[in-house]
């Protein structure tokens, strides 16, 4: 196989990202949630450790979504007909996304719950 340049490898990786975003509604929803979480991180001035956990949660969700998409494509190619192993592969990949999403939700609650409650309390004090 011919050696490919870094540029080509990078372009293929970006094409993979674009394919995932175009074809997977869940990936678009998770990307939007990630953008909102990053804006919230700046808005609430979260700590360096909180940033690390937030970015880790985002990376885990996006990576598992992309791997899920890749596994779905390979399964559809290899087994377009119904097969218990095709089901096992797709369900297991979906399970990985679910675990990453649960981790992300818990991380988001732990990071943003206190600052959101504090902001709401300050707003109430201002209004009363
Ligand atoms: N070839 C197959 N054989 C057996 N079961 C399958 C097969 N293809 C899909 N399934 C079952 O249908 C479910 C949904 O598969 P599908 O390919 O529609 O994923 P999807 O809805 O696109 O998933 P996602 O929402 O993650 O994009 C799988 O999790 C699996 O349980």
UniProtKB/TrEMBL annotation:
This is Diacylglycerol kinase family protein. Belongs to the bacterial diacylglycerol kinase family. It is found in: Cell membrane. InterPro entries: DAGK, DAGK_sf, UDPK. Keywords: ATP-binding, Cell membrane, Kinase, Lipid biosynthesis, Lipid metabolism, Membrane, Nucleotide-binding, Phospholipid biosynthesis, Phospholipid metabolism, Transferase, Transmembrane, Transmembrane helix. GO terms for molecular function: kinase activity. Its EC number is 2.7.1.-. It is an enzyme of class 2 (transferase). The keyword rRNA processing does not apply. It comes from the Bacteria. PROSITE patterns: DAGK_PROKAR. It is a multi-pass membrane protein. The chain crosses the membrane at residues 27-46, 53-75, 95-116.
């Amino acid at each position: 196989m011919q050696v490919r340049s870094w540029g080509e490898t990078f372009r293929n990786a970006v094409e993979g990202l674009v394919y995932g975003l175009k074809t997977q509604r869940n990936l678009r929803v998770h990307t939007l949630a990630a953008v909102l979480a990053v804006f919230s991180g700046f808005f609430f001035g979260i700590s360096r450790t909180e940033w690390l956990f937030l970015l880790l949660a985002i990376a885990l969700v996006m990576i598992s979504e992309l791997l899920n998409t890749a596994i779905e494509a390979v399964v559809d190619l290899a087994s377009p007909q119904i097969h218990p192993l095709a089901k096992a592969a797709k369900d297991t990949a979906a399970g990985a996304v679910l675990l990453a999403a649960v981790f992300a939700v818990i991380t988001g609650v732990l990071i943003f719950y206190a600052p959101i409650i504090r902001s709401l309390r300050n707003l109430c004090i201002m209004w009363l």
